[in-house]
Amino acid sequence: MITGATSGIGRACAMRFASLGHKLILTGRRVNRLENLKKEIENTHEVAVLVLDFDVRNNHDVRAAIDGLSEEWKEIDILINNAGLALGLDPIEEGSLEDWEQMIDTNIKGLLYVTRAVAPGMKARKTGHIINIGSIAGREVYPKGNVYCSTKHAVDALSQGMRIDLLSHGIRVTQISPGAVKTEFSKVRFHGDEERAQNVYKGFKPLEGDDVAGVVAYVTTLPPHVNINDLLIMPTAQASAAIFHKE
Ligand code: NDP
Ligand code: 8X3
User: Fold this and answer.
1) Minimal CB count within 10 Å: which of 76, 129, 139, 226?
2) CATH no. for residue 215?
């Protein structure tokens, strides 16, 4: 199951895992995109795809979708908690409360709702792998990153907490934290301002969704007794959250 499969890292993960022959549950809010992706995958790979259209912020809808899975789909063995976003880049005294609440509700509470719905099945089967998409913003705080960075620090803490709590149930928990990835992330952050979004990636080669997806796929191929706890993946031209080599 991949949350946030309509775009960017989640979509790239869907393509990667399809090429490895996994059955896929793809989720997001933009259902047309999910249906098109399902068609694309089923036309090119011998895998079945199930589309679930819900907003991770709505626990009622999360539960209805996941608890309602048929026998054929309900045994989720890999959960990729990818759905997330940044909104705004403002100093703390000027930030938008709406932006803050949406980031907190999506990146922290949404990840919790989905995990709470999926983890009991993994526990009952004594196997599973939860992969949380963190960020360099979960390791460092950068100017005007305040609330987004806080949500990704929370993902870091939750990844550690889940690993401890799920340890005795044979469930692996991995956090994968990317630096700059060229996706729709900046367009969303800047509320649709495409020009401002493009500027973020000027002068250096950012990661692409598939660079991250390759690493996500890799950690799932390791033997069951091996777990990558935590992995930071950066563009070669980015040393830390705010230090880039730009030409
Ligand atoms: P995109 O904007 O391209 O994709 C974000 C995905 O999240 C979309 O599929 C979107 O689906 C989904 N999503 C957002 N809000 C919700 C919601 N409320 N309910 C359900 N799905 C939601 O960005 P990325 O691929 O870059 O982002 C994926 C993850 O990677 C995020 O957690 C982000 O924080 C993280 N990340 C990104 C980095 C980057 O530089 N791009 C770097 C480090 C981490 P839809 O809108 O259809 O619901
Ligand atoms: C996305 C990367 O540095 O823009 O998590 O916060 S950054």
Assistant:
1) 226
2) 3.40.50.720
